[in-house]
Structures are given as structure tokens and as C-alpha cells.
Amino acid sequence: NNKLASDWDIMVIQEPYINFLHNTSANHTWHVLYPTNHYTHPQQCTHAITLINTSLDSNSWKQISYPSLDIVIIQLSGHYGQCTIFNIYND
Hints:
By secondary structure, the chain is mainly beta. It has one domain. It is 7% helix and 38% strand. It has one helix and six strands; from the N terminus they run H-E-E-E-E-E-E. The chain has one helix at 2-7; strands at residues 10-14, 30-33, 48-53, 61-64, 71-78, 81-88. The strands form two sheets. The chain has a three-stranded antiparallel beta sheet with strand order 1-3-2, with no helix packed on it. Strand 4 and strand 5 (71-78) form a beta hairpin. The N and C termini lie far apart (28 Å).
């Protein structure tokens, strides 16, 4: 949705739709970040994804590796220092 992309830089989603190719749906305005082991454990269910707006400089953020399908961690860096965002699914 273009309205979401114009209003938000980062969206965290829990219990996302995952298709038969083991991907979610997102348009070209978002980078989809899956948990670190999403593709290495396709038989298990991914519970969290994070969307990063493509308007954010890709040099200003990075994904932090964490071995859980329930957690996506990103770290933003800039003139403000660093900010770490945790998307944690807790059932």
C-alpha cells in the first residue's frame, strides 16, 4: 500500500502470510526481512517479519543474525548513533 510506505519507514508484522514458495507478499516499496534461519528451516513456521521502506538508505541499517523463527533484529545507524529494533513473536 503506497499510503503505508509514505507514512512509515519500518513495519513489524507477526504471523505473516507465507505462500507455498515460503515467501510473504510485499510490493516494491519494501525490503522484506525474514528471521535469519527462515530459509534454512522451511518446514517450521515463520512468526515474524520486518518490512524496511526502500526509501531508507540500505547503508543505514543492517539485520542482526539471531537463530529463531520468532525474532527479527535490525540495527539502524546514523548521526544519532545506533538504534536496535527487535521484532519478537511471543505466543
